[in-house]
Design goal:
Strand order of the largest sheet: 2-1-3-4-5
Number of domains: 2
Number of helices: 8
């Protein structure tokens, strides 16, 4: 059955069963999870309202604990969905080389650190096949600055027997442009890790809307 021939009143759950989840809009998928509406809105209407208020599906899911219009049970259910997605992405990165699926790396980093109110510095430690060993937040800072100590990065990389790393930090300001300090830090860490034969593959600047690669800018 083509989409054009679908009955106009076909509900999201029925549409999913007939056509599969990829055929559904964001609001329709969310409506299936919500199941019922709220204060005179059906589930689909509530889904549209929630997504519009949050500025998109991704911001809504990242802000599940504070999402207005949702009770504790629904927030718990959506929070579980988000955590399952995060764990699934992490498992994918462990099962195959990181840059075989660069989009998943970006999605993973956004789920992990995009919404932090303070700046955090994360390192993804990789084995010789560039599969994920561990992803750890090594440093935390204020709203716009993090102190990163190269010695600690090198020490942890050696402890995990890493062959390469991917660096990442968030910009709580929402500006995804790498700063001069970001480029300098990348160079310092690359040189420090090279002394113990560990490669820096990339350094990402993460915001809610964008993940910027310093390697693509020629800065990593």
């Amino acid at each position: 059955m083509s989409i054009k021939s679908l009955p106009p009143a076909l509900r999201p759950r029925e549409k999913l069963l007939r056509l599969g989840p990829r055929a559904l809009a964001d609001a329709e998928l969310l409506a299936i999870l919500l199941r019922t509406g709220h204060r005179g809105q059906d589930a689909l209407g509530l889904s549209h309202a929630l997504i519009e208020r949050a500025g998109g599906l991704a911001p809504l899911l990242r802000e599940v604990p504070q999402a207005p219009g949702l009770g504790p049970a629904r927030r718990a259910e959506l929070g579980a969905v988000v955590e399952l997605a995060r764990r699934s992405l992490g498992q994918d990165l462990q099962d195959k080389p990181v840059f075989d699926c660069p989009a998943r790396v970006r999605e993973y980093l956004q789920l992990e650190i995009a919404d932090r109110e303070q700046e955090v510095f994360m390192v993804m430690f990789l084995d010789a096949r560039h599969q994920l060993i561990a992803a750890e937040e090594l440093f935390r800072g204020t709203i716009n600055q993090t102190s990163v100590y190269p010695r600690e990065v090198v020490k942890r990389a050696l402890g995990l027997n890493a062959a390469a790393v991917v660096l990442a930090h968030n910009h709580p300001s929402g500006c995804a442009e790498p700063s001069n300090a970001d480029a300098t830090l990348t160079r310092v860490l690359r040189e420090a890790l090279a002394l113990v034969d560990i490669r820096v593959l990339d350094h990402f600047v993460v915001t809610r809307g964008t993940v910027t690669s310093l390697a693509e800018r020629g800065l990593a």
